[in-house]
Design brief:
5-stranded parallel β-sheet
């Protein structure tokens, strides 16, 4: 099991230059977890695509349904005390700290597209590309 950030979920479903890495992560470990926050963040990703004219509403809703299916049963609440402690210690947003706190609670890695976050939370967090490189045969 690994915790993934919202961008990793988005890269898996919405094809971008980072999608191949998300595919590799999924092939290496398909047991993904995330805090419930991923839903709001993913909606925001879709809203940005809509605003930029890169997809229509029907397509955005399909991506959201696909993401819900992908993460069904894999969502958890992050512990508030842990989130706020991490945020106070590092100055990172509570949003980012939800993913870190969940990974720490579960005793697993957080695979993230945010290199700065990964640098602040070693060894819990690992950048997406580094995770892919480290697990190759």
């Amino acid at each position: 099991m690994i915790v993934v950030d919202t961008n990793v979920i988005a890269y898996l479903l919405i094809r971008t230059p980072h999608s191949a890495d998300a595919d590799r992560v999924r092939a290496q470990d398909s047991d993904w977890a995330a805090p419930f926050l991923w839903r709001s963040e993913f909606r925001n990703v879709l809203a940005r695509y809509l605003a930029a004219g890169l997809m229509d509403l029907r397509t955005a809703l399909e991506y959201y349904r696909d993401a819900e299916r992908l993460m069904q049963g894999r969502e958890s609440h992050a512990d508030t005390a842990a989130v706020l402690t991490l945020a106070a210690q590092t100055g990172c947003s509570a949003y980012d700290c939800e993913f870190v706190a969940l990974a720490q609670e579960l005793g697993v890695l957080l695979v993230t597209s945010d290199r700065k976050l990964a640098a602040k939370f070693k060894p819990t967090a690992i950048p997406l590309q580094e995770y892919v490189r480290s697990a190759r045969p």
